[in-house]
Amino acid sequence: MNALPPHPGMAFVLVPHLAPQYKSHLTEILARNARLPVSEVQGGDRVSPDRIYILPPNRAMRIKNGVLHLSEMGRRSDWRNPIDRFFRSLAEDQGERAVGVLLSGEGSDGTEGLQAIKENGGTTYAQDGATADHLSMPRSAAVSGYVDFILSPAAIGERLGASREESGGAGSADPLRPILELLQTAKGVEFELYKRSTLRRRIRRRMTMRRLRDPRKYLRALKADSDELELLYRDILIPVTSFFREPESFQVLKSRIYPRILKGLSPHAPIRIWVPGCSTGEEAYSHAMNLVEYLGKRAPRIPFQIFATDVNPAVIEKARLGLFSKKIRSEISPRRLRRFFVETENGYRIAPFIRERCVFAAKNLVQDPPFTNLNLISCRNLLIYLGPVLQEKALRIFQYALKPRGILMLGRSETIGDFLGRFSHLDSKKKVFFERTSASSENLDFLRSGRFLETESALKDLEPSGQERSRPEPGAFDLQGALDDILPVRYIPNGVIVNGELEILRFLGNTSSYLRPAPGKPSLNLRRMAPGGLLLALRAAIHAAKKSSCAVRSEVSAALSNDPGKRVRIEVLPIKASSLHRECFLVLFEEGGIERPDKRRAAGTRRQKESRRIIELKEDLALSGEHLKAVVEEQESTNARLKASNEELLSSNEELQSINEEFETAKEELQSTNEELVSSTEEVGRGNRILTRANNDLSNLLANVDIPIILLGQDLAIRRFTPSAERVLGLSSNRIGSSLLDAGLPLRVPNLEKLLRGVIKSGGVHELEVQDERDRWYTLFLRPYRIEKSKADRSRITGAVMALIDITERKSAEKTLLRLAAVVRDSNDAVIIRDLNDRIIAWNSGAQTMYGYTEKEALGMSFSRLVQGGRRMQARAVLRDAVKRKNLEPIEARHRTKDGRTLDVLVTVTVLRDERGRPMELATTDRDITAKKQSELELLRMHARVICAQENERRRLSRELHDGVSQILSGVKYRLESLPGRIALGACAAAKILKMGGILDRAISEVRRVSENLMPSELEDLGLEAALRTLCRDSGERAGMQVTLKTGRCPPSLAPATALALYRIAQEALNNIGKHSKATRVIMALACRGKEISMDVSDNGIGFKLGAAHRHGRRGVGLGSMHERAESVGGSMKIDSARGVGTSLRIRAPLTGWGEVPHE
Fold first, then answer.
1. pTM of this prediction?
2. What is the domain extent for residue 803?
3. 899, 928, 957 — which closes off a domain?
4. Minimal CA–CA distance to 98: which of 180, 13, 209, 181?
5. Overall number of domains in the chain
6. 360 by DSSP, 3-state: which?
7. Which CATH number is 776's domain given?
8. Which residues, in sequence order, are CB contacts of 728 under 8 Å at separation 6+?
9. What angle, rounded to 10 degrees, do the helices at 930-959 and 987-1014 form?
10. How far is 279 from 382, CA to CA, in rounded Å?
11. Phi, psi at 507, each rounded to 5°
12. pLDDT in tens, 828-854
């Protein structure tokens, strides 16, 4: 409000969303801050300019005749959409003077109200999202397309003030005229007679969008920019429409109009409906659906056709497509959606049986010939944009196009004005009329340009133009109208306007004294309405005026209705105007003198009376003579013309005879041509079927291809797009027909318009990488849209094709590849890629450092040169195995450098495969582990020495126990057993000695067992298998479990170190099983496979979690010892266990080699 000028010259009504029980303080708050007076509406308030009115809580408000009326909100439904309710009443009451402003709020209240204001020619505003606290209401209005300006509140106030100043200011020259002339030249549409206020408003809107204030600068912009001219053209036409707009009107059609039409319909005659100003087709399709619903089962038997026209070809093209967005679900019931629409990915398509009934054509209502023999014309909210002259032209066209008693339906804010004499109300509330008088009896002139006017309509063009009659404020005194009613009565003489056939077109003043209706059929012809004496003078005067093209005056004595002896002065003036296309005459009547007897004097003599009568008769005779002379002259000229015409007819007759003979020949030719046309029709039918299939193929292709594709016209208007374009680029079906540049694509494409126009102009192709607002990468393809002609002709470019390929993953892969390439390039490991023929094709710096070959030397070299000669077969086997398997564990190998050194390397092999999984190349990463291997070998030697020392110690202890302790115990036992023979002992002592002998036996057995465990003699004497069999037997007996040994074929001799290691592992395993597993059965298997010996031990015990074994060091103490013994002979050990499933142990060791580690 603070942005408004002190005296804006307009009233402001504020309709807030308030709870019914809420006490509003809005009036006090605004009164303290606003410049204008603020008051709460009391009901019955007449709106005054420069004042703010506020709706109180728990009240609904409407405006009628400039007065604000309140009503109480009784039902809960009354609380909804108070803004829509007020805006609709404002649109009906104020028309094009209404201004709707929608500010921050929740929901969609106000959108339908703004639509009503826009349909009635008003101006609409909405708050922009950047300044709104609640976006729902302004966003709903903006998306609907019914908003002229989307601005901040301050900018809206400035715009309202500026519009008031612009509309109130007067310039020396009309800035509209050159703009309208430019539009007429470019588009062929004359906007001169459209409502000036609407034109100014639409032009101001475009000027605001271009940030221009001077109309002259905007005119220069229009001349330089054809796109801006196109946008202005679309704005002026205001394509506002929706399905089943004003639903009550469609109910009236079903209840009253359709039955009336069907009642007067001839058998097999179609119902013909015309919808002028159809925009994008919603109105026409609504009529088709409504009529099908009414006809029900009769629909297939009763043909009907709906003709829909609009002056804008772009909206007609969109209407023909029959594609609508999913937003129509708010306008159409689910039942109608299922019956009359086909759902697509982009929205809905009108059903074919409805589309076939609608014919769309680009047609100018007031310039092009209309459709005829129509049963119904639905022209809603079109006349409000036309000036008075064009409105009258349109209504005459409708009367001409309708059948007798045909139906005309107008919008809620429209009226038929002076045509009430020609149309009658059928439903005045819904603005439905039927024709009362047939237009066939009137003269309609079709102009060469396609326009047609009646002379009466042309007379309006004689009135001064340049200032439009402003609409009076409701309730205000219409001074101009009052003057128009009074002045003709007081000051304009009595007369009529007639055409060349003496048909009366308009009466002036009071002519009842001079003209009277003739008996019989009603007629407005001057010949039948003028008295005999007056008619003769009239015909003579009109003939003279027509001949001389000047005013003609005469005086005649005529027997008038009021005074038989009255003399009448007649004046006939020819009417000349460029807008009149036929001759017209203004006939004026004026009373002359009258002779009456003088009561104060005696009557004259009979001779005087006769003399006066003779004078009158002579005057009449002279007048008749002049008229007769004129008639004779006209007759003579007519006879001369007839004579010439007769001669022409004679020659024409001869020509017609020859033409008749030519017609006979042409008839035969037409017959053959007809046969050719039949075959051509069949060809066209086949071509149409092919075209239909091609169109279906194209529709299915666009619907199913997962690539964003947009088809553009020469003006960069969107023709079609794929569903993925809707998903990726945020397009919707209501964008079809609009410019791509206004779609707000989420792409960062510099100079997109220039690139597209270059493609259309030159036919070139552009391909570039672009990013969207989410930083996804696309390859953008811009190619020309060509229309293929015949093979001999070149194709013509009529637009452009825009396609996007998502390359985000590829760009990410490229980045990853660059990083990996840098890692590979700078890695210390040797990265080598070779083909399946073992040729090196890639060689990094790490490989050069490790092997000494430069990249140039290595490329193309066989990889086998790096492998030691004795191991090349093994390397080839590894290669074959890598190709067959997907995952390959790293392997150790020995490679040779350029200078002959041998390196121990850890080789990781990766197979590079194509998209079908077939191997293409092998990549190997070699890591030098020579130093590591030397350390491991040294560690192994140290470990072997430790084991050797342990076993030597075990052997020494075993000998000492066997030879020393065991012998001593045996001697003690022998002496103890010999005591009873040498000494007399009692029974008790003998028993104790016997018991001590048993203890000594057990001690000797335990010593022997420990000695055997320390160094089993069977292992050295009988070999590993015998030693394991004894171990299994003893362990089973000791732990109370069944231990089974299974052996395969093994060599009789085994390296001592390997045999000892396997024995110790088995010994430790059985010991652990007996102590911890609670097993009842153990299976031990010993076998040889190739150059390896394997030993498997499995039990059915309780098992354990492997993680628990890591509490003590790397594995457990026992498990660690077993691993160390396996590794000490070049073997490995693998253990598997889990709770409740037992434990299995697998040991692998080489048969030879590792056991011969030298002792020191």
1. 0.41
2. 705-811
3. 928
4. 13
5. 7
6. strand
7. 3.30.450.20
8. 708, 772, 804, 806
9. 160
10. 10
11. -100, 140
12. 789 988 888 889 998 988 888 889 999
